[in-house]
Amino acid sequence: MADFTSIEEMAKALCGEWKSRKNFIWTGCADPDADRCALIPLRNRDNAWGFDIRRAMAPFIENGTAGVARMRHWAVGWQEELWLHVYAETGEITPGFKKLWKLYQHKLSLRSSE
Questions:
Q1: How do residues 55-98 score in pLDDT, each as one tens digit?
Q2: 96-103: average pLDDT
Q3: 42: left (phi > 0), else alpha (psi -120 to 50), else beta?
Q4: Which has the closest alpha carbon to 99: 113, 114, 86?
Q5: CA 88, CA 42: separation in Å to the nearest integer?
Q6: Beta pairing, strands 77-85 & 37-44
Q7: Of these four, 9, 17, 28, 61, which has the most CB atoms within 10 Å of its CB?
Q8: Kind of pairing, strands 66-73 and 37-44?
Q9: What is the pLDDT of residues 23-64, one digit of tens each?
Q10: Could you count the other beta carbons within 10 Å of the beta carbon of residue 31?
Q11: Is the C-alpha dihedral spanning 10, 13, 19, 20 positive or negative?
């Protein structure tokens, strides 16, 4: 994930980013408004670094404003990604995306303290 300086910048960059991926089709999404969603890689056959993100996002997965999708990937066999609403129908940033922003900021603080 790129370095973002604000939640608005991150929201704008990630919302609908999945549409620009080459050789990618998002099928089986339970959300009829996937254009308001972002996909965040969680894990694949070769790594599992997304367990902390998945655990932190559990309340949003449970209430249906986020979910986990397992996708086929030509290089790693499969990949799990978190999908979540970036913007509410009102255009405001969702609580789930705000939580993701806090996780991102924590990751940056850990990286800068190394």
A1: 899 999 999 889 888 777 677 677 788 889 999 989 999 999 99
A2: 93
A3: alpha
A4: 86
A5: 23
A6: antiparallel
A7: 61
A8: unpaired
A9: 666 655 555 577 888 888 887 655 666 778 888 999 999 998
A10: 16
A11: negative
Instruction: Give the whole-angstrom CA distance, residue 36 versus residue 103.
Output: 20
Domain ranges of the chain: 7-19+32-112
Look up residue 45 and give its amino acid: R
Per this entry, what is the length of the chain? Answer: 114
Measured CA to CA, the distance from residue 60 to residue 66 in angstroms comes to 5
Strand partners, 50: none
- What's the rounded Cα separation, in Å, for the pair 75 and 69? 17
What single letter denotes the amino acid at residue 10? M
Residue 78's closest CA among 41, 40, 37? 41
Q: Residue 73: which H helix or E strand, with range? A: strand 66-73
Q: Which residue has the tokens 């902390």?
A: 52
For tokens 């850990």, the residue is: 110
In sign, the C-alpha dihedral spanning 29, 32, 35, 38 is negative
Q: DSSP alpha helices (H): ranges in the chain?
A: 7-14, 51-56, 58-62, 95-112
